Amino acid sequence: MNKISPLATVSPNAKLGDNIEIGPYAYIDDNVEIGDGCKILPHAVIFEYVKMGRNCSVFPGAVVGAIPQDLKFDGEVTYVEIGDNVTIRECATINRGTKASGKGVTKVGSNTLIMSYVHIAHDCVVGEHCILVSYVGIAGETEVADWAIIGGGTKAHQFSRIGMHAMVGGASRINKDVPPFALCGREPLCYCGVNIVGLRRRGFSSEVIRNIQDIYNTIYFEGLNITDGCAKVEAGFPPSMERDVILDFIRGSKRGIIRANDSKDHTDFE
């Protein structure tokens, strides 16, 4: 049974699951699908062409599915897709996609936390188990892979990519791709080591973490260019999920990856 405030505005064309709560002055537009167990809190807005999974929470002032802030947008039907167990905190904004990008959809994966005042622009893809801390802004067509964490106030350039399990320090400017498993910060943004704490929390063994660190030491700190560093890693390290994810990410980068931080010793495993 759904609990819908009489002060909420809910389109009769919206498709609502079971056990949904919709608070006073919330607005649910046409062509919206909301899964079981979701909570749409007071003054939250969900515009057209949004599909939301189960057990999501949308806090006051958040706006999901507004048209993209993109001059190429011409009124076409585009979408926002939200996974299960996603929390969208106060005043966050998630825009629809644009056909001009070739995607036409903005996606947020399951079990992701979008904190207050975050902006997710058109055609972005945010993976599962991600955390975007307050005031993060990711420009159009940015890709954030699973388990990535982006620190508060960080801004990502259009078409940027943040790899899986990466950790980006707060108030950073992302204008190059951030490779998987990396810890990065400083100004300009640079690789500062492996995200050891995050990987340990997620069950990565010390052996695997050391292997990741050795791979990055080879790529960044042996005096090779990135192409030659990747070739040496491919030749010198046995195949593994971690090795292959790193190589595929770097070789697929169109913007180039962040540079190394040369101000500290990266040889010791912490």
Beta-strand residue percentage: 25-35%
**Which CATH class of the largest domain is shown?**
Mainly Beta
Counting DSSP E segments of at least 2 residues, the number of strands comes to 29
Largest sheet strand order: 1-4-7-10-13-16-19-22-25-27-28-29
Number of helices: 4
Rg computed from alpha carbons, rounded to a whole number of angstroms: 20 Å
What is the fourth-level CATH superfamily of the largest domain? Hexapeptide repeat proteins
Number of domains: 2
Note the gap between the termini. Answer: 52 Å
- The chain-level mean pLDDT equals 96
Residue windows where pLDDT falls under 50 for at least 5 positions = 265-270
Percentage of residues in helical conformation: 10-25%
Say what the CATH topology of the largest domain is.
UDP N-Acetylglucosamine Acyltransferase, domain 1
CATH architecture of the largest domain: 3 Solenoid
Q: Tell me the major beta sheet.
A: 12 strands, mixed
Sheet/helix structural class: alpha/beta
| Overall geometric form | elongated
Question: Can I get a quick summary?
Answer:
The chain has 270 residues and is α/β, with parallel strands linked by helices. It is built from 4 helices and 29 strands. The chain starts with a strand and ends in a 10-residue tail after the last strand.
